[in-house]
Amino acid sequence: MTQQEISDFLTKNNYPHVSRRQIGYDVEWCKKDAFSFLKDNRKKLAEEYKIAVSNLEQLRAEAWRHFSAIEDINSTVKASLYDKIQSLTNNLMTLYSVGDTIQQEMLKNMQEQAADIREEMNKILEQRISSQAVF
């Protein structure tokens, strides 16, 4: 819907004090908020990724310690631990492959930030040049 259509709809449904202009402000705010949310979410995802990798590596190391401490080769506990170690290794490999995607997203985010900074710098330089102009 266009902003005017949204305003008309709200007016018809007992929200007469919402102008088309206000809807425009709200849409702009949502866009900015969504971008901020995505940036924060990417950062949180990277942090959670590091924690998950660390936890799986620690669990696997502990499982290997217990596995090595059992001397009975035919132990069902040892066989069960081996299955868990294999499962942890598979989970780590899956997580590492997902890590490549996370790194690509982080790189994309950094490139977007660099472009934003470049744009802000250009605006500042334009303002500086225009303020120095002599008429």
- Strand percentage: under 5%
- Ends distance: 47 Å
As an assembly, this protein is single chain
- Uncertain runs: none
Largest sheet: none
Overall form: elongated
Strand tally = 0
| Order of helix and strand elements from N to C terminus | HHH
Tell me the count of domains. Answer: 1
Radius of gyration: 28 Å
How would you state the average pLDDT, rounded? 82
Helix-strand makeup class: mainly alpha
Helix content: over 70%
- By DSSP (H or I, 4+ residues per run), the number of helices equals 3
In short:
The chain is mainly α and 135 residues long. The protein is built from three helices and no strands.
Describe the structure.
α1 (3-12) packs across α2 (20-69) and α2 (20-69) runs antiparallel to α3 (76-132). The radius of gyration is 28 Å and the shape is elongated. With 135 residues, it is mostly helical. It has one domain (3-128). It is 87% helix and 0% strand. The chain contains three helices and no strands.
